[in-house]
Specification:
- The protein is an alpha/beta fold.
- It has an 8-stranded parallel β-sheet.
- Helix 1 crosses helix 2 and helix 4 packs across helix 5.
- The longest helix has 27 residues.
- It is globular.
- The structure holds pyridoxal-5'-phosphate.
- The site of pyridoxal-5'-phosphate has 13 residues, from strand 8 and helix 9.
- Pyridoxal-5'-phosphate (PLP) binds next to strand 8 and helix 9.
Length: about 230
């Protein structure tokens, strides 16, 4: 099928270009290239669109829905080794079991009930996905994430009450805001809580995020092309 093959080649080329821009931004910020991980956000795209990106060597992927990821990734993981799958969408308590079973990293830990459910389920399954706390840096009502002024207390609760090991923080700045304000806020919260990982920066602002210390950038459209409308 000419059209689908054409778009697959485009995905490969776009991935190479994003990697080049990440390297350039890291070096401009006086950082090592290897200090920034690229997550390819494959939500809404099917296996045919994802495979060429895997073939190009990309191994870290992000999905925002547990069910969609469970449909797509088990088969892809049989074809490609060492895939690292990250959950970047809101996690409902009733999907915690599936999420712990499927994901290598959960970036959307944002409330005590979820922290307790994760702790229980991780013990039950004897699996320890890497955990990031999502901070709602713009305090947007419609967005998940712990409000910035509750972040320290929530991090303490995760660690002390739930015994969770946290790796870092994630944020999604409000559309239209200068993202740098939000990236810096996330960096400050991480710094005072001894958290190393900063998941921030998407297709439109990943270079700015890298200059603010992002250790992981989450890039979707710039690799896979424009998404069909995401019902979330
Ligand atoms: C969709 C999504 C991205 C990727 O956004 P693009 O603008 O397509 O790069 C990154 N992070 C989260 C949490 C997302 O939901």
């Amino acid at each position: 099928m000419a059209t689908s093959q054409g778009s697959n080649i485009a995905n490969h080329d776009r991935l190479v270009e994003i990697r080049r821009r990440i390297d350039t931004a890291a070096i401009a910020a006086g950082r090592r290239r290897a200090s920034v991980t690229l997550m390819a956000v494959s939500k809404t795209f099917d296996a045919d669109a994802i495979r060429p990106v895997l073939k190009a060597g990309q191994r870290v992927f992000g999905e925002n829905r547990v069910q969609e990821a469970s449909r797509k990734w088990p088969a892809l993981r049989e074809q490609f080794s060492s895939v690292e799958l990250h959950l970047i969408g809101p996690l409902q308590s009733n999907k915690v079991g599936d999420a712990v079973a499927l994901f290598d990293c959960i970036q959307t830990l944002d409330r005590p009930k979820l922290a307790r459910a994760l702790a229980r389920e991780m013990a039950r399954q004897n699996r320890s996905p890497i955990l990031l706390v999502q901070v709602n840096t713009g305090e947007e009502a419609q967005k998940s994430g712990v409000p910035p002024n509750s972040a320290d207390a929530f991090i303490r609760l995760c660690r002390e009450e739930c015994g969770l090991v946290l790796a870092g923080l994630m944020c999604i700045p409000p559309a239209g805001d200068d993202p740098v304000v939000h990236f810096n806020m996330l960096g400050e919260i991480a710094g005072r809580n001894g958290l190393a990982e900063l998941s921030m920066g998407m297709s439109n602002d990943f270079e700015a995020a890298i200059s603010c210390g992002a250790t992981m950038v989450r890039v979707g459209a710039a690799i896979f092309g424009v998404r069909r409308k995401d019902p979330s």
